[in-house]
Amino acid sequence: MPISFEHVSYIYSKGTPYEYKALDDVCLDIEEGKMTAVIGQTGSGKSTLVQHLNALLLPETGTVKVLDRTITASEKPKRLKSLRGDVGLVFQFPEYQLFEETVLKDVAFGPKNFGASEEEAKKRALNALKLVGLGEEYCERSPLELSGGQKRRIAIAGILAMNPKVLVLDEPTAGLDPKGTESMMKLFHELNRGHGKTILIVTHDMEQVFRYCDRVIVMEDGKVRVHTDTETFFRNPAACQEMHILPPALIRMKELLKENGFEVPDDILSIDALADCIARQVKKHG
Asked: In terms of domains, do 113 and 172 share one?
């Protein structure tokens, strides 16, 4: 069954001069087993939306259904702890999730909290650290003394160690260099394709969305403006620009070539395919 939002609204600081409606009557079905990007301008409701998935936030009105649990305004699901084991959320600022005195203890905390033995928790922690590219030499270091990019890797490892069914990532590659960003996105892609995990990524990076995601949700003023497959979404660069979303470089290049008289089919979605298309036309008219 899909993850669903049924007429969900959420208000920050309700009843105060700072009252702000972050979600406004959101209705949305998110398909399981897919890699979905949640995009939009700052303040559009992206982070507020995903924080409802493990009942970190409760809807002001409406219902959220996640993995056979129901979250409403009046009560959290009865199996809240197990829900948070099944839906792993990595915050935008990783330091919010790091609190133990060593990296190993921090990453092992989740499995231990869900009943794993000391030995099993350590095993899971070491495996998760390996997945995010951190070796055993980091295990006894304080997580708070590491770089921003390393903190992000540790926060992600702490979630992966719990083996969640749904992985929610808020700007997961912020603070990483290009090589680290690529390796992390490939990891998420493998977790989705190879292990069947449902993944939601809040991001501003359209190159990541284009290369790795199946679906796109565009948030605007607390509402869902667009929900479609990635290929369909990027077939309309004008609509992207209208929403102040910069299309990926390949899409911009295709549009530029079309403006200069080249015929570029919509189904060309790689640099190599685009280069072959242009080479054929140049040769034909050369």
From this structure: yes
Q: How far is the C-alpha of 285 from the C-alpha of 255, rounded, in Å?
A: 20
Burial class (CB in 10 A: 0-12, 13-18, 19+), 11: middle
Claim to verify: residue 17 and residue 153 sit in the same structural domain: yes
119 near 155, Cβ under 8 Å?
A: no
The verdict on 178 and 266 lying in the same domain is no
Predicted structure pTM score: 0.88
Express each pLDDT in 46-87 by its tens digit.
Answer: 999 999 999 999 999 999 999 888 999 877 767 778 888 899
Contact 184, 128 (CB under 8 A): no
Q: Which of 38, 23, 5 is nearest to 223 (CA)?
A: 23
Half-sphere exposure of 210 (CA within 13 A, CB side): 19
Using DSSP's 3-state secondary structure scheme, residue 118 falls into helix
Name 3's bridge partners: 30
Q: Do 131 and 269 share a structural domain?
A: no
DSSP bridge partners of 28: 5
Residue of 27, 49, 25 whose CA lies nearest to 37: 49
Enclosing domain of residue 265:
248-286
Q: Which amino acid is at 158?
A: G
Give the span between the Cα atoms of 221 and 155, in whole angstroms.
29
